[in-house]
Design a protein that fits this description.
The complex is a heterodimer of chains A (about 170) and B (about 170). With about 170 residues, chain A is of the alpha+beta class. Helix content of chain A is about 15%, strand content about 45%. Chain A contains 1 helix and 8 strands. The N and C termini of chain A lie far apart (about 85 Å). Chain B is mainly alpha-helical and about 170 residues long. The chains are: A alpha+beta (about 170), B mainly alpha (about 170).
């Protein structure tokens, strides 16, 4: 009958094996109970989408070009889309910097060299936003009309701009 | 039996006499001066109470040197007010005198590139009128619709706006 020798290497291997078996046992118990290693799901932030209509009132002069800058000062809204306006002259998607998408600041502009131009108040663009947070903590939109011109390239200083925040889209 | 004073006690007694506050040390020198014989006093005064006399030649040389130095100093700074006035006038008038660098794409010459410049160039391109080479914003050697697009892109560029200082 031969006696087994307990070398340090053999002892270490046994210890590693024991720890691995113990870990497996703990993991199986935790998974069966549905607790322990499984993490609590993170609270989901409410996200909604809303549209903002932008109107330019050029008074009695036909509007051939406009440019505005819109900013969300709350930091909750991100621009996800830019759409044209209601009049045929501005129905195509207006010019904007693609890098403005997924941000809170955008400069939008469009012009038309045709003769059929809108007069008075007209919706020139619709912007789509992704808004995070509760409805009570809504975005803080600010819009500034940077340019409005008639077809003879003269500025329309009396032109005004305003926005209407739409509902959920 | 009377005790005899030791030498040390005698010395201390003499020192106490010298420190006696009633002896009037401050007034003693004046009193001494008055007690001196007038002849000696006059000789002492003539010996120590003398105003040094500088020869006129040395005095004139010092004054001449000082005047020369002051003249040089004044000559060095004589043009300073004129130079300061010239610099001031240049700073004030420079913006008006130096022709303003024309902003590429600013057809309306209002100091900024916006969508109205794109409208202006688009109308000229469509009309077929001769086009100014300066309106070749895209730099491809031709003035056409691509330059209109370049001006419009510049007008809405957030990066360009940041470079202009957030105007």
């Amino acid at each position: 009958m031969s006696a087994r020798r307990h070398t340090p290497a053999r002892t270490a291997r046994r210890a590693v094996l024991a720890i691995a078996l113990g870990g497996l046992a703990l993991a199986s118990v935790a998974l069966r109970d549905g607790s322990g290693l499984a993490q609590e799901p993170a609270p989901v932030e409410r996200v909604r989408f809303e549209a903002v209509d932008v109107f330019v009132d050029s008074g009695e002069r036909p509007l051939a070009a406009y440019q505005f800058r819109l900013v969300d000062r709350s930091g909750r809204a991100r621009i996800v889309g830019v759409e044209g306006g209601e009049h045929a002259a501005f129905r195509d998607a207006p010019r904007h910097d693609p890098r403005a998408l997924m941000g809170g600041t955008i400069i939008v502009a469009a012009f038309d060299t045709g003769e059929d131009l809108p007069v008075g108040r007209t919706r020139v663009a619709r912007l789509h936003f992704e808004v995070r947070g509760e409805r009570a903590d809504g975005p803080d939109y600010h819009v500034e009309l940077e340019a409005a011109a008639a077809s003879d390239e003269t500025k329309i200083p009396e032109a005004r701009i305003e926005i209407e925040e739409g509902g959920r889209r | 039996m009377a005790r005899r004073a030791t030498p040390r006690a005698q010395r201390n007694a003499n020192m106490n006499d010298e420190r006696d506050p009633t002896s009037g040390d401050d007034s003693r020198s004046d009193d001494d001066a008055e007690q001196l014989p007038p002849a000696l006093l006059g000789e002492l005064r003539s010996l120590y109470d003398v105003t040094p006399r500088v020869p006129a030649a040395i005095d004139d040389a010092v004054v001449a040197g000082a005047r020369l130095r002051m003249r040089r100093h004044a000559r060095r700074w004589r043009w300073f007010p004129v130079a300061a006035a010239v610099v001031l006038v240049a700073v004030v008038l420079a913006p008006a005198l130096i022709p303003r660098r024309e902003l590429s794409g600013d057809l309306t010459r209002d100091g900024r590139v916006d969508i109205v410049d794109a409208l202006a160039l688009a109308r000229r391109v469509e009309s077929g009128e001769p086009l100014d080479r300066r309106w070749d914003v895209s730099g491809d050697g031709a003035v056409d619709r691509r330059d209109v697009d370049a001006i419009a892109a510049r007008a809405v560029s957030l990066e360009a706006r940041r470079r202009e200082g957030g105007r």
